[in-house]
Amino acid sequence: MSDSSAITKIEYEILAEFRYTLRQFMSFSENAAKEVGITPQQHQALLAIKGFPGREQVTIRELSQRLQIKHHSTVGLVNRLEAEKLITRSAARDDRRKVLISLTARGHSILKKLSDIHRDELQRLSPQLRSLLGGINKLSEGEE
Predict the structure, then answer these.
(1) CB 16 within 8 A of CB 136
(2) Alpha-carbon distance 20 to 18, whole Å?
(3) Cα separation of 89 and 104, whole Å?
(4) Mean pLDDT of the region 63-81
(5) Does 4 map to a domain?
(6) Mean pLDDT confidence for 65-71
């Protein structure tokens, strides 16, 4: 924000509106996941696997980091994803002790469906988000 430590009413309003818009998107996302029969956390995991930089497989540790959850929680999530036939596990070629997780065809299909509707929702929200981010940037540059 501005150099002053005091936060103005306008800054509070912009921050509150930004958080409200993010929460609306998160609520939309949670409901979309439930409508296709998975949990929001399962959706996040599928997206983290498919969207991992440079590859389409992740380790438990990498997935834990991406989801910001503990290792044992990630193992439980992976077990549930595997039971739902959304992911598979395989040993890494370079280190057989390392387990790699990748999406199944079913996992890809569900993620594609969710990603399509999320893209549409983000496009709908894009003007509002741009405006809010522009307002935050102006305030951080000291403009009122």
Answers:
(1) no
(2) 5
(3) 10
(4) 97
(5) no
(6) 97
Neighbours of 108 (CB within 10 A): 15
Residue 142 located in a structural domain? no
For 93, the token pair is: 């070629």
- Give the Cα separation of 134 and 123 in Å (integer): 17
Q: Assess if residue 65 is contained within a domain.
A: yes
Q: Residue 43 — very low, low, confident or very high, per pLDDT cuts 50/70/90?
A: very high
Closest listed residue to residue 108, CA positions, set 40, 50, 33, 29: 50
The C-alpha atoms of residue 40 and residue 137 are separated, in whole angstroms, by 31
Give me the pLDDT at residue 1, please. 43
Q: How many residues does the chain have?
A: 144
C-beta of residue 70 within 8 angstroms of C-beta of residue 109: no
What angle, rounded to 10 degrees, do the helices at 60-67 and 40-50 form?
Answer: 120
CA–CA dist 23, 6 (Å, integer): 26
The domain of 92 spans: 9-137
Query: Taking residues 83-105, what's their average pLDDT?
Result: 92
pLDDT at 112 over 70: yes
Percent residues over pLDDT 70 in the chain: 94
Beta bridge partners of 31: none
